[in-house]
Design a protein that fits this description.
By secondary structure, this protein is an alpha/beta fold. The chain has two domains: about 5-15 and about 275-380, Lyase, Ornithine Decarboxylase, Chain A, domain 1 (Beta Barrel), CATH 2.40.37; about 20-270, Alanine racemase (TIM Barrel). The protein is built from eleven helices and 17 strands. The chain has helices at about 5-10, 20-35, 55-60, 70-80, 95-105, 115-130, 165-175, 195-215, 245-255, 270, 305-310, and strands spanning about 15-20, 40-45, 65-70, 85-90, 110, 130-140, 160, 180-185, 220-225, 260-265, 275-285, 290-295, 315, 325-330, 340-345, 355, 380. The strands form two sheets. Strands 1, 11, 12, 13, 14, 15, 16 and 17 form an eight-stranded mixed sheet that branches. An eight-stranded parallel barrel has the order 2-3-4-5-6-8-9-10. Strand 5 (about 110), helix 6 (about 115-130) and strand 6 (about 130-140) form a beta-alpha-beta unit. Helix 4 (about 70-80) runs parallel beside helix 5 (about 95-105). It is elongated. The chain binds ligand LLP.
Amino acid sequence: MIDPKEIETYQKLQTPFYRYDLRLLKATIDELIAQSKPFGYHVHYAVKANADSRVLEMISKAGLGADCVSGQEVQAALDHGFTSENIAFAGVGKSDWEIELGLNNDIFTFNVESQEEIKVIQEIAHNMGKTAGIALRINPDVKANTHKYITTGLEENKFGINMWELPDVVELLKNSPNLNLKGLHLHIGSQITDMDPFKNMCLRINEMQNWFIDQQIRFDHINVGGGLGIDYGNPTENAVPDFKKYFGIFNEFLELRPGQQLHFELGRAVVANMGDLITRVLYVKHGLKKKFAIVDAGMTELIRPALYQAVHKIENLTSSSDESFKYDVVGPICESSDCFGKEMTLPETNRGDLMAVKSAGAYGEVMASNYNLRPKAPVIYVD
Ligand code: LLP
């Protein structure tokens, strides 16, 4: 809930802006640590979800590592207090300069996604006189039951090394003296709310580990990626995700070998609910059958509804009406897909009302664009 005094202040501010509630971020991090610590699990925060400076600082101070997918993210992690031995670098298309940056900073691992990448990292590390820590990102061909654009662990997806390639990979690694194989990495997708896919991934890892042990390969750590979903429908009631249930699945189904560490790469679950996108109603347009609430934020600030048909809860913060109506809440961008939600039940809405698009802390600001030459929306912190 946003405090009425805060809303009064917001009425004087230019919209749209992101509102980050650092108190909720702190509570979420505390719960994440409380639930992972008893098992000795280690969490790398997926920087791609939200790379805001204050957010990164809070997360690094809490002792989490960083999961990065670009040289810029690696640099941002280093600049915000993450130590290099706590940085994993994934991504199907790492450029040479990004590999060099990682090597220069002796990051924990490159999560490698293809045979060709293994060859390139070996060559660059050799030329630099360095050893690269690597984890093999395997595509486990496990269904994630989520939107197809955020499914990553199926054979048809571009991510990871296919299981049938593994014998060749083992041979390749024998001839790669500048690579230090540390871990096994998987990530099946994002916004996963049903625990079965995670259970299936655990079972798949157990089989894989048996195969690797037969090849005399042992991993220091297993990295199971991220993907834990949040409750977009009830972001206030379920503000903090059920980390207990999530970590419990891995504890129950994953067979860790002696001394082996388990790593996670959570993004959305850490930051989604601490963020609201605050926007103002510009016009209410009455169609023949529909009412449109046209707001001043759009797909340029939050592209998730347009890209993944995602539904974020929307609250009218200022209407005092007891009557409610159905509105299509749309942005100002010249695209029909610039629509936050269709037929959303809201109290009677008028020009000037303030609205909060909830759960915009993950994959909101980081995916913003300046389409239609719109400037980047500012961030307001609550702490
Ligand atoms: N690890 C890897 C290798 C990943 O590819 C991702 C997300 C994560 C960890 C973090 O996943 P999370 O815990 O946040 O689910 N823009 C989309 C989500 C894309 C996720 C990409 N990879 C969205 O707005 O739903």
